[in-house]
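Lab notes, practical 5.
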Amino acid sequence: MKQELSSEQREQLVKVLKARFEKNPNRHEGLEWAKIEAKLEANPEKLWSLNEMEKTEGEPDVVGYDEKKDEYIFVDCSAESPKGRRSVCYDRAALESRKKFPPENSAMDLANEMGIEMLTEAQYRALQELGQYDLKSSSWVQTPDNIRKLGGAIFCDRRYDTVFVYHNGADSYYAARGFRGSLRV
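Output from the prediction step:
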């Protein structure tokens, strides 16, 4: 099923993204909004995913440009882990293994439904170079297979002016833990 926004929704979202882009120049030095907007207009399915990021309070913004692939990189830049994506376990296997009180969804499934990628630990650390995020919340990040095979998953946050990486059972979920995503356009 193809996901699309109406022309009014697209116009409104582009306005929001442009305002955020202009308000936070430190996140994307040297990048021009006109080029980004042209890419967005040429990729309506990406606008749908960005709208999903926005609806779940991720506040997506451009944080980089991949010259080789000619793609702009959007990442959730909300101060805390997006509120509309919290209280989720790590992935489908963790969700299905949880017998008592399972969460409604998993982070990996939700990211897939939205058409975005969950941040890696490296991407999370790069985001933290642009500001201070997750001072009160935490965010699942992509977990290496060797950890996941043993039942675990990793998440990150920022405390004491330091980015920490932790582990938990992949089936755990908390009201203050969600995930941050990225999208290439």
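Observations recorded by the TA: Helices lie at 7-23, 33-42, 44-55, 92-97, 107-114, 121-128, 145-149. Residues 7-23 form the longest helix (17 residues).
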